[in-house]
Amino acid sequence: MRKETHLQRATDHHPGSRPPRNRLADQISRPHPKATTLSVLGYIALVPALAHANCTTSGTTTTCDTSSPSPWTTQIGTGPTTASGAQVTVGSNAQVVVGNSSAIALSDNANIVVQSGALVQNAATNASGTYGTGGNTIDFRNNSTLTVQQGATVLSNGTEGDAEAVNPEGTGNLIVNNGTIRGINSAAIWFQNTSGTNTVINNATGVIQAPGNVMGASGNGAVVFSNLGKVIGNLVFAGGNDTLNMFTGSSVSGSINGGGGSNLLTLNGTGTATLPTTITNFQTLQKKDSGTWTISNSIGSMGITSAEVQQGTLVLTGNNSSYTGAMRVDQAGTLRASAQSLPSAVTDNGLVQFQQDTNGTYAGLVSGSGAVEKDGTGTLTLAPSAAGGNSYTGGTVLKQGVLSVSADNALGGTTGGVTFDGGTLQLGASLDLASTRAISVTSNGGTIDTQGFQSTINQAISGSGALDKTGSGTLTVNGAVVGAIAAEVQQGTLVLNGDASQFTGSVTVDQPAVLQASAQSLPPTVTDNGLVQFEQNADGVYTGTIGGTGVVEKDGTGTLTLAPSATGGNTYTGGTVLKAGTVSVSADSALGGATGGVTFDGGTLQLGSSFDLANTRAVSITSNGGTIDTQGFQSTIAQNITGAGALTKAGSGTLVLDGVNTYSGGTTVAAGTLVVGDASNTGASVAGATSVATGAVLGGYGTVNGDVTNNGTIAVANALPSSVPAGARGSFTINGQLTNAGLVQLGGGGQAGNTLNVNGYVGQNGTIALNSVLGADNSASDKLVVNGGTATGSTTLKITNVGGHGAPIVSNGIQVVEAANGAKTDAGAFTLSGGMVKAGAYEYYLAKGGVTAGTSDDWYLRNTVPAAASVSANGSGGSAVVAAEGTSALPAAGSAPVTLYRPEVALYAQIPGVMRQLDWMQLDEFHLRQGDQMLLGETGRLPASWGRVWGAHSVLSEGGGVSPQFDGTMGGAQIGQDVYADGTEGGHRNHYGFYLGMGRATGDVSGLAVGVPNADVGHLSVNAYSLAGYWTHIGPGGWYTDTVVSGTSLVAATTSSDNLHASTHGTAVTASIESGLPIAIGHGLTMEPEVQLVYQHLSINDLNDGASNVGFGSGNTVLGRFGIRFAGTWNAMGAAWQPYVGFNVLHAFANGDRQTYDSVASIGTPVNQTTARIDAGVVTKFSKHGSVYAAVNWGTNLDGEHVRTIGGNAGVRWSW
């Protein structure tokens, strides 16, 4: 059957659909050639055709070369009668050129190779060919291969319209063209088969050319056409299920028509290419390989109903809005289009790139496991029409321009991430990103534009690029920010709530944008040119650095610690606003640049160390108030604090306000110390009502312009706590009323002279502590000055003596409260702590009014009761002096002032007398120590030992200014040892020995105290520890001399009636010589006159009882005793008994005792006194070795002050 001309065939095809084809490697494979047995007829027919000089045949193989004759002009092969499997090779540069016939006509399984530079050509005019299908240049039938090498040409050069250059007559054939296949007046290739598949591969150097359609077919056989080279003309397929494989770098100059059937178009290659615009009748589109293909027309107009991007990139630039077929992107594929060019439904398992250079809205749906990428400078709005939105799960990459969404599901499935790679995500409504989306930022950065909406990101954001926030709305990031992201808040508010421990980047805040975060969520570097809000509801430490021109604001109830790690601290200059909770800083630089202010708007500034605020910072307090918590540290604010709010001082440390502060909300000192003006800034002040809490301190050298309620301490000038640098004496002024339920500490620095000035004073059982120099009239003292108002209520004055040694008051006294400018003070307004205060030898009491006119509302310290006020001739007189409530009972005023000595004066005055008496009684006399001289009969070494105990009750009175009297007991014990004794023939005996003694005196003392005679002044005890040596000489007839030298250590302890305790130490060195001469008077009785002389040197150390230093000095006393002793002797009960009675007169010779108080006041007591003593006792020698003795005595004074002693003595002696 003859084929129609190629011009007719161009319009006979109709579109159809076919399933997708396999890859190119599969397309070009063909079945193994069938093994065919050559018939004898076929062989004979082939041989004559090949029997020429330059085309030689060997078996079924023909080879043509360039040898003569050339060109070869005879047809090779006989078409269908040619043996199967024939092979023809036209060698390089060889030529087969024939006329009105086929040049090569073979049968099945043929293999034809036209080598480089070779030419196979015919010039048919009306030939029917061996197959009856025209005079085609090359014919073959089934399963054959034609290879045209680069530079080779197959040319149909005749005028016959159906004589094509290549005409496969059957199926399963493969045409590989690397050279040129051309029809001058016909199609280049024609397929005669009505079924099966033939394949054409037009490689990169290949050219297939025809004046119209370069290819045609007679039936519905399939054609697989792979174009890597050039097709010049139209590429038209017939009715089969055809495949066109286009490769980058190839071209088709005419139109492409898939014809009938189900046709497949594949786009292949690694380069970049654009599909011709005139292409129709392909039902399936497949993009393969890594290259990029662009389709500029609508894929629907091509007949496509199913498109698949398997690999590489497919770019759609036409209008595909009406395309309803399938569009699928495989994992290795990329589909690139704008919103206007993308089909309405895409199954994205690879990458969909929106190349959006102009604004556009995509209302279609993207599904699958792949990603969506936004490129181009325009705005892409993803507005999926389906309620569920897009469902692609591979994530969204924002590379350029803007991607606008109004719902999270526009960004695909909730597991799909969002990657910022240079582009912008814009909110079209308030929405929250699904928390399962991974969000990352590349080095190209990105932007989130909230416009005026709200959005929350609950997951982490990671990466290393720049991420900007624009739009007036609020973006909240609850997840962590990880990596070196450089964020910039250009507009609106960015809220960071996530963990910033891995946030190594920075944030820049532009004006008027807001960054809200906590210490835990803020990155280490912030440039604040807008507002940084710390929303700190839990405690946190921010060690990063904040710079810029913006403001830092603290919100939230927690404590924010600003601890910048940079050496220079924070440098932001817009100031710090404390709205809630606490900001803790350890250096001024943590609050930004030194020109940045601090505004208290309800929050607290806490010190983490001692430092001063830069004096260039403006400090203000809004109506919401503010707190400064010093903790245990100290800080000075030198500048003025302004505003309408109230200031609260918290923390145990010290805050110094040295400015003229005008904030008007008042001040609360809740804890620690608030200093208004240090010693160098006495003009400092605060305004408004001020309250001081229990345990807190207010004070300084400045002024409070308002009322003060004190439940803590008001510390004036140098009375401030030790944490404040010490200054000179000064004053503190309250231009208002002071209500004092706490302590006013006027006294400080060991000096007197501070002044507290108040307009009015109300005591609520408070205390004022003052330093006073307790001396004479007008001695220096701290002072409360009530200026024009009143002093009411009840207040205790506590006086500390600073250097006063006491002196008699002869006029008004020492002023401690001054009523100035007509001020009035209530009679019970002030009392003195303890009722009295001691200094030197005196007791001072508090009195309202002085002795001079105009002092009736002043208060003074006095130590005398003034004489009764005299009235002058004109009827005027001094003020009445009224002792303050709580003062001890004072003597009535008389004609002369009454000096008030303190109780300790009389108590201490008795110490020397008791020490002296105790030492004397410890030494005593020979008979009381040793019994009798008749007992001393031993000789030799260590001849005898002895011991005694003694005790007495004594009343010792002394004269002088305070008339002390001791009423108590004395007692002691001694043990002695005769070390050596000898005798002479003349009857003289000597005993040498020593003794140890311990004595104690304890009793009550009375005397003149606070103007009251014989008042109980306290208790005195003295302990004595003695060591003595003695020599006793006994002459013939029993006369004796006894010499003793002793040293005694004495310790005195006192407790006054005011419960004042003191002690001192003394030493006594005493020497005694005694002699007695027994005279027999008959009847076994003797009379023994005795004489004794005792010398004592007593030295007592000074003592200090806290009120003054008391000096005792030393003194010498001589005691003389004259006595007479009557004794009798008899034997009874195996023992020798000697009862006796003695009468003694004693007299002390001395200059008297004297105590000095702070080397000023001197109190003396006389010592010269004569006393009498009666002794009665018995001495019993009960064996050769042992004897005992005992006595009682009674004594009293014969002149001077009252003395009474009742005592006893018992001893034992043992001769060895």
Q: Overview of this structure, please?
A:
This is Autotransporter outer membrane beta-barrel domain-containing protein. Pfam families: AC_1, Autotransporter, PATR. With 1216 residues, this protein is mostly beta strands. Among the domains are: 1-273, no CATH class; 507-596; 906-1215, Autotransporter beta-domain (Lipocalin, Beta Barrel). The chain is built from six helices and 106 strands. The strands form ten sheets. It has a 28-stranded mixed β-sheet that branches. Mean pLDDT is 92; it is low at 1-53 and 870-877.
Write the layout of secondary structure elements.
Blueprint lengths: L5 H4 L14 H4 L12 H11 L4 E4 L2 E4 L22 E4 L4 E3 L6 E2 L5 E4 L4 E4 L15 E3 L4 E4 L4 E4 L9 E3 L5 E4 L2 E4 L5 E3 L5 E6 L4 E7 L1 E3 L4 E6 L2 E7 L6 E5 L3 E2 L3 E2 L6 E5 L3 E4 L3 E2 L3 E4 L4 E4 L10 E11 L9 E12 L7 E4 L2 E5 L4 E3 L2 E3 L3 E5 L3 E4 L13 E3 L3 E4 L12 E3 L3 E4 L11 E3 L4 E4 L4 E4 L3 E3 L2 E5 L3 E4 L3 E2 L3 E4 L3 E4 L9 E4 L4 E4 L7 E4 L2 E5 L4 E3 L2 E3 L3 E5 L3 E4 L13 E3 L3 E4 L12 E3 L3 E4 L11 E3 L4 E4 L4 E4 L3 E3 L3 E4 L3 E4 L9 E3 L3 E4 L8 E3 L2 E3 L4 E4 L2 E3 L2 E3 L2 E4 L14 E10 L2 E3 L9 E18 ...
Parallel strand pairs: 2-3, 3-6, 4-7, 5-8, 6-9, 7-10, 8-11, 9-12, 10-13, 12-15, 13-16, 14-17, 15-18, 16-19, 18-20, 19-21, 19-22, 20-23, 22-25, 23-26, 24-27, 26-28, 27-28, 28-29, 29-30, 29-31, 30-33, 31-34, 32-35, 34-36, 35-37, 36-38, 37-39, 38-40, 39-41, 40-43, 41-44, 42-45, 43-46, 44-47, ...
Antiparallel strand pairs: 1-2, 80-85, 83-84, 84-85, 84-87, 86-88, 89-90, 89-106, 90-91, 91-92, 92-93, 93-94, 94-96, 95-96, 96-99, 97-98, 98-102, 99-101, 100-101, 101-104, 102-103, 104-105, 105-106
